[in-house]
Amino acid sequence: MLRFKGGTLFPVLFGHVLSVIAFHGHAGAAWEDDWKKTLTEAKKEGEVRVYIYGYQDAIQEFEKSYPDIKLTAVVGVRGADIASKLMAERRAGKYLADLYITGLGTHIQVLHPAGALASIRPALILPEVQDKTKWFKGMHHYVYPDDTYSFVFEMNVSRWIYYNTNLVKADEIKSWWDLTQPKWRGRLLAYDPTIPGAAAPALWFFYRNPFLGPKFIESLYGGMNVTVSRDPRQTWDWLATGKFAICIACRGWSKKLQDQGLPVARITHPLREGEFVAFGNGIVSLIDPAPHPNAAKVFLNWWLSRKGQTAFQEITGKSGEPKNSLRLDIPKDMIPAEEIPQEGFKYFMEDRTSAEERDQAVKILKSVMKN
């Protein structure tokens, strides 16, 4: 038996165990008390207002868990429209928004510069939400990690190259530079990367990637006679009928297109220049000041919980455009395997400098397409 001088180790270990139990018991009681108090006050407030673009159907599940708190969703056609509305209200002295859920752009270009964000970490109460091991890479992902502003809950590996299966074989495309081969000149179609949508982050990826950069933008858009469209339906019609062989960042991809018998597919294998992960509309921010601060905390904890993120994945999956939650402890069977980020792999992802870099990329694009 192990002994200290003058006695066995058991009393010391036993005392340590009791102290650990007492500590965790106190911690457990603390969060429970905090949650009960927050929930009581939230019910008194009676409402939570979420400004959102993209996932309004998923957040409707909130009231099933908390029927005493009315969910008011303020929905816009684009994230920029909602941000404009929110800022116009603030200028008029009306602070009506509690939370804001959209893509990256308006968080970094509008809300943060305006001082409209509140720190999220102090609002995370439920242990299953606080537990970082439940999240990708064992961490919470914030756009502003120092202040814990703008929590990123969604991340999909982007697959941007779509092709007509009668005209192209997948193994012909192993690098982005393969698209600049002479045989594809005049046979390339692209969704307009100068407007919001899947093509905008693709253009940023080209610009930021050291293996591509401005030279690739010039070679692709300036040298390959690429046809650019803003009509998603038109791009799929043209691709399916063989008018074009390849489409870059077409909007509205869904397996339903293949199920309809159309000869279209996408490149699912990694390309030599690396991978990009998109946040989609998967960023949630707390607004400061908030008219219903306690209800906002309840909604935030529900949304980031296993139940909330499962609802998010399932509902986006049923829509035909499944989105991957960064929570690891929920089923992923509805997410295409090639879109799920993998541990240990380094991905390109947009950040606070992306907007300025994208502007530079657009300038290059417009310049080369004029020539």
Q: Can you lay out the helices and strands and say which pair or pack?
A:
Layout: E1 3-4, E2 7-8, H1 10-45, E3 47-52, H2 56-59, H3 62-65, E4 70-75, H4 79-91, E5 99-102, H5 104-111, E6 117-118, H6 127-130, E7 141-144, E8 149-152, E9 156-157, E10 161-164, E11 188-191, H7 199-208, H8 213-223, E12 227-229, H9 232-240, E13 246-248, H10 255-259, E14 264-266, E15 277-278, E16 283-287, H11 293-303, H12 306-318, H13 354-370
Parallel strand pairs: 3-4, 3-5, 11-12, 11-13
Antiparallel strand pairs: 1-2, 5-16, 6-16, 7-8, 8-16, 9-15, 10-13, 10-14
In short:
This protein has helices at 10-45, 56-59, 62-65, 79-91, 104-111, 127-130, 199-208, 213-223, 232-240, 255-259, 293-303, 306-318, 354-370; strands at 3-4, 7-8, 47-52, 70-75, 99-102, 117-118, 141-144, 149-152, 156-157, 161-164, 188-191, 227-229, 246-248, 264-266, 277-278, 283-287. The chain is built from 13 helices and 16 strands. The chain has 371 residues and is of the alpha/beta class.
